Amino acid sequence: MTSxxxxxxxxxxxxxxxxxxxxxxxxxCGTTPAPDRPAAGRSSSAGPAxxxxxxxxxxxxxxxVADHVWVTESAGYALARQSVGVLGDxxxxxxxxxxxxxxxxxxxxxxxxxxxxxxxxxxxxSDREPVVTCERDGEQWYRATESGHAYARExxxxxxxxxxxxxxxxxxxxxxxxxxxxxxxxxxxxxxLPSAEEASGRQPVERGDLPPEGDGAPNNEVGxxx
Length: 226
Known about the structure:
Blueprint: E1 7-8, H1 17-28, H2 52-61, E2 78-87, E3 91-97, E4 103-109, E5 113-114, E6 133-137, E7 140-144, E8 148-155, E9 158-165, H3 171-179, H4 186-192, H5 196-201
Antiparallel strand pairs: 1-5, 2-3, 3-4, 4-9, 6-7, 7-8, 8-9
């Protein structure tokens, strides 16, 4: 397909292999939202919004940019809060699940604005599947391989992508999820963001067995702490 319109160059379907594995591992310990926080969707709370400064602090503690936290909504799917995390430098990723095992992956990233190349195959040296479908669908772009598919759209300098496995998530569900993905309001940020305690628990643990000089290889001598 040849097109002269500007569109995002869609990411590898199902995000990247590393991200998909990381998010799958995160949801493996349970996909039910925390009992004190409802599943994220469009906010329906009539109560006062949480303190914005606190939300910004929680986002920062989780290495997230609050304005890059988006949510989506699709019938039967609920946010797996364990999956919430940063993509790249300042992007955002999350997974929505349903009881039958379907997963919708949401990604919000700064990606180059480029003409869509609907005839490209896997990148050199990668394990990406060849694209079998790439087409404009309303305000979004739809792209599919034999096993996965995704919808993407541009919003300012961000590209918002929803993706899933073709056998478990149909195209209509992805399309509605992509079209229903807005920036999180303050109530939704409160639902999505890790608490300050949860965020601190995600920080890397400083190891005590690394030598102060040299190549930083662990000290495996007897008596060194692990």
